[in-house]
């Protein structure tokens, strides 16, 4: 799809709404039949959930976005100088770009430095991609920015890039501590997968939230305006709408707390009363006791040594760590290192660091 030759996107995989609803239903049934019960945080991001997440990123208590903005503003120029424009054109790839607000900081630096690059956001949602590309068009119309979005999952996008554009190095952004929503084992599996698709010498800029005062971390997920509460409850609203369920959204506590045993803030929905929930799409009923929790999200927090270990296990080499002034958040820059056997071996080691 072309929105002018500078601003385009290509659909690699069409979202299949029926299949997505079927998968949601399978996951919800499995989660509500488990003990303890759980629902996947990947389902937070329907239209309303994405808008609420946007509001979260603007909250005083939710320091993560502010810190990463600061990092990109402070270090944007040195990132450009170090990793771009050494005679090789670059794809600035972004995984799950959202509205691309933070990325605009880097785009402006790169345009100013006149380096040869194109911006390649990858997103599974065509409507989100269209909005992003149109927003960039209105903001960067008069610049030399080349934007070439890819609609598909990360694997589709990166595989397509690696097979089509040999002459370009890839510099991949995975911002916002999204990696923190994976279990440690799945984070390594995901990053290894990235290293395997990317080419030797490609780089990854990975945002990660650092360990700090547990109260500061907890408040970020128990904000005073209760936006995160609405974000968490929206999961039930989505299930009501898409799976014809009858969750009573007034009968739940939103609760988030820091777990030092796994270095993560855990979010839950806790039933205020004994209740039964009917899932109309499947005809199944689920019982909950008073004060029974449903786990909805882990947001992992890291020490630098954890991140160094994760890089090594994923087959990447640490180039540098970039911090905000308080050292609350880090943007790590890692290089794909083919010689590291971790990225190429199939299924070994995983149990050692799960
Ligand atoms: C997207 N992700 C990094 C956010 C986080 O901090 O775990 C999602 C979020 N959940 C509650 N607030 C924000």
Give a brief rundown of this model:
The chain is an alpha/beta fold and 354 residues long.
Largest sheet: 8 strands, mixed
What is the CATH fold-level name of the domain at 60-213 and 302-353? Rossmann fold
Q: Describe the strand arrangement of the main beta sheet, using strand numbers.
A: 1-5-4-3-6-7-14-13
How much helix, percentage-wise, in residues? 25-40%
Q: What's the number of helices?
A: 11
Q: How many strands in all?
A: 14
User: Rg to the nearest angstrom?
Assistant: 21 Å
Bound molecules: N,N-dimethyl-L-histidine
Looking at the chains present, what oligomeric state does this protein adopt?
single chain
Question: Residue-averaged pLDDT, rounded?
Answer: 92
Overall geometry: globular
Percent of residues in β-strands: 15-25%
Task: Give the low-confidence spans.
Answer: 343-354
CATH architecture of the domain at 60-213 and 302-353: 3-Layer(aba) Sandwich
Order of helices and strands: EHEHHEHEHEHEHEHHEEEEEHEEH
What is the CATH homologous superfamily assignment of the domain at 60-213 and 302-353? Answer: Vaccinia Virus protein VP39
List the helices and strands and how they pair.
Layout: E1 7-11, H1 17-33, E2 37-38, H2 47-56, H3 63-83, E3 90-95, H4 101-112, E4 117-123, H5 126-140, E5 147-151, H6 154-164, E6 169-174, H7 184-197, E7 203-209, H8 214-219, H9 227-243, E8 252-259, E9 264-271, E10 275-279, E11 284-288, E12 293-300, H10 304-314, E13 316-323, E14 329-336, H11 341-344
Parallel strand pairs: 1-5, 2-12, 3-4, 3-6, 4-5, 6-7
Antiparallel strand pairs: 7-14, 8-9, 9-12, 10-11, 13-14
Helix pairs in contact: 2-9, 3-4, 7-10
Bound molecules: N,N-dimethyl-L-histidine.
N,N-dimethyl-L-histidine binds at residues 56, 64, 176-178, 180-181, 221, 228, 231, 297, 299.
């Amino acid at each position: 799809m072309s929105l002018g030759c500078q601003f385009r996107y290509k659909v690699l995989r069409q979202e299949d709404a029926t299949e997505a609803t079927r998968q949601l239903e399978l996951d919800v049934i499995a989660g509500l039949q488990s003990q303890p019960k759980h629902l996947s945080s990947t389902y937070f991001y329907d239209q309303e959930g994405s808008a609420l997440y946007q509001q979260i990123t603007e909250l005083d208590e939710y320091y993560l976005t502010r810190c990463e903005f600061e990092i990109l503003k402070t270090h944007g120029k040195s990132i450009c100088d170090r990793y771009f424009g050494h005679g090789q054109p670059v794809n600035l790839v972004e995984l799950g770009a959202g509205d691309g607000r933070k990325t605009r900081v880097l785009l402006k630096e790169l345009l100013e430095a006149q380096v040869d690059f194109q911006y390649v956001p990858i997103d599974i949602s065509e409507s989100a991609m269209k909005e992003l590309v149109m927003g960039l068009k209105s903001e960067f119309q008069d610049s030399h920015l080349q934007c070439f979005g890819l609609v598909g999952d990360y694997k589709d996008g990166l595989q397509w890039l690696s097979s089509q554009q040999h002459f370009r190095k890839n510099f991949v952004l995975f911002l916002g501590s999204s990696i923190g929503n994976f279990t440690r084992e799945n984070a390594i599996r995901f990053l290894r997968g990235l290293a395997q698709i990317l080419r030797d010498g490609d780089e990854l800029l990975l945002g990660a939230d650092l360990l700090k005062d547990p109260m500061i971390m907890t408040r970020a997920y128990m904000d005073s305006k209760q936006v995160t509460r609405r974000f968490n409850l929206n999961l039930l609203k989505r299930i009501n709408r898409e799976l014809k369920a009858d969750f009573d959204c007034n009968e739940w506590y939103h609760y988030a707390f820091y777990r030092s045993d796994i270095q993560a803030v855990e979010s839950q929905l806790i039933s205020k009363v004994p209740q039964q929930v009917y899932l109309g799409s499947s005809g199944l009923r689920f019982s909950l006791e008073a004060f029974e929790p449903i786990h909805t999200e882990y947001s992992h927090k890291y020490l630098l040594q954890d991140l160094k270990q994760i890089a090594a296990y994923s087959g990447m080499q640490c180039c540098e760590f970039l911090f905000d002034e308080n050292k609350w958040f880090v943007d790590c820059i890692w290089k794909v290192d083919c010689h590291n056997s971790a990225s190429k071996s199939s299924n070994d080691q995983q149990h050692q660091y799960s």
